[in-house]
């Protein structure tokens, strides 16, 4: 079957505010900001749309409301979405002053009603790869130790489809933050071929200390940091996943499977504007390459180049370049 991907899970409308570096918000005051921009967000709005941009035959499976924000999202994306007239469309206000870690104000909306039944076996049978993103932001997918999520991934594997799972940062004060994520991960990973969390997400879910990766480079493969990443990845492989890709922010990415492991430094960005969508578009580039049979290390290198391109714009997609250009840059820089 030719490569065809279903990108499923969380979606929202990202409303990004253009802020100067001295921006502050003081109660009772008026703070002047620049123009607001609106773009698709969430795993489906970023990873799914990026896969489509990279030329991968892609279908989207995400739920939006039958409201104005839903109309905007549907018009922005050329691929159909599931509409629920009883729910509002999820939106996120992205607060990202230049050079400052981004913050979010998020309304989950229809994401919380998204469930395994929204994706039928008939829908799954039309694709060769199933990618799911952000279960911590979809209530029905994380409740009961992820029973719905596990059911969905199990069905995909029974149909002979390869799978991948991405996570998102969990608010410790939220309902999701009080779950035993280690149990959920252990339940679902036997049905996941590629598990692609960030280091922060992984350490929170496995209840382990976050290693300091500041200044980490490819020449440090024998140091304590690499050892900790190795231990984390081996734990995930023991749970049942085939390949682990850990996003380590500005430092780069660590990859691990039964045959090989290593660390790829980030590609130096030409212009830093916002990190919105960088991890998601990196995963899209990784999957686009990997599903076409490219070597694992090369796929991670292309993913790092895609992430650097992404952060040159306020939204996830505007800074991206065609996959052939990313490949060329990756080969020249890393090899």
Describe the structure.
With about 325 residues, the chain is α/β, with parallel strands linked by helices. It has a single domain, classed as UDP-N-acetylmuramoyl-L-alanine:D-glutamate ligase (3-Layer(aba) Sandwich), CATH 3.40.1190.20. The chain has ten helices and 14 strands. Strands 4-1-9-10-11-12-13-14 form an eight-stranded mixed sheet, with helices on both faces. Strands 3-2-7-8 form a four-stranded mixed sheet. Strands 5-6 form a two-stranded parallel sheet. A hairpin with a 4-residue loop joins β12 and β13. The protein is globular, with a radius of gyration of 19 Å. The chain starts with a strand and ends with a helix. About 0% of the residues have low confidence.
Terminal CA distance? 32 Å
> What structural class do the secondary elements suggest?
alpha/beta
Number of helices: 10
Overall 3D form: globular
| CATH-scheme architecture | 3-Layer(aba) Sandwich
Number of strands: 14
Gyration radius (Cα, Å) is 19 Å
What's the CATH topology label? UDP-N-acetylmuramoyl-L-alanine:D-glutamate ligase
Order of helices and strands: EEEHEEHEEEHEHEHEHHEEEHHH
- The CATH top-level class label: Alpha Beta
Beta-strand percent range: 15-25%
The main β sheet shows up as:
8 strands, mixed
Average pLDDT number: 90
Describe the strand arrangement of the main beta sheet, using strand numbers: 4-1-9-10-11-12-13-14
Number of separate structural domains: 1
Helical coverage, percent range: 25-40%
Assigned CATH superfamily:
Ribokinase
Q: Point out poorly predicted stretches.
A: 218-222
């Amino acid at each position: 079957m030719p490569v065809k991907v279903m990108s499923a899970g969380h979606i929202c409308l990202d409303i990004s505010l253009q802020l100067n570096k001295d921006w502050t918000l003081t109660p009772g005051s008026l703070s002047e900001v620049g123009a607001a921009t609106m773009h698709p967000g969430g795993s489906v709005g970023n990873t799914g749309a990026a896969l489509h941009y990279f030329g991968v035959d892609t279908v989207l499976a995400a739920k939006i409301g039958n409201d104005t924000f839903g109309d905007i999202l549907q018009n922005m994306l050329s691929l159909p979405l599931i509409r629920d007239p009883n729910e509002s469309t999820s939106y996120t206000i992205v607060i990202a002053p230049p050079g400052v870690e981004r913050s979010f104000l998020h309304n989950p909306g229809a994401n919380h009603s998204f469930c395994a039944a929204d994706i039928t076996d008939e829908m799954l049978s039309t694709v060769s790869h199933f990618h799911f993103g952000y279960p911590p932001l979809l209530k029905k997918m994380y409740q009961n130790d992820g029973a719905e999520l596990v059911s969905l991934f199990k069905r995909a594997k029974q149909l002979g489809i390869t799978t991948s799972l991405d996570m998102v940062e969990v608010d410790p004060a939220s309902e999701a933050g009080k779950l035993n994520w280690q149990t959920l991960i252990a339940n679902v990973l036997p049905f996941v071929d590629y598990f692609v969390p960030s280091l922060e997400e992984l350490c929170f879910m496995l209840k382990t200390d976050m290693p300091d990766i500041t200044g980490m480079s490819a020449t440090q493969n024998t140091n304590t940091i690499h050892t900790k990443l190795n231990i984390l990845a081996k734990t995930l492989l023991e749970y049942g996943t085939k390949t682990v890709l850990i996003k380590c922010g500005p430092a780069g990415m660590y990859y691990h499977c039964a045959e090989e492991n290593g660390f790829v430094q980030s590609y130096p960005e030409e212009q830093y504007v916002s990190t919105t969508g960088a991890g998601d578009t990196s995963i899209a580039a990784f999957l686009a390459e990997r599903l076409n049979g490219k070597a694992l290390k090369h796929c991670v290198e292309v993913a790092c180049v895609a992430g650097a391109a992404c952060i040159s714009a306020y939204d996830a997609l505007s800074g991206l370049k065609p996959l052939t250009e990313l490949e060329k840059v990756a080969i020249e820089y890393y090899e």
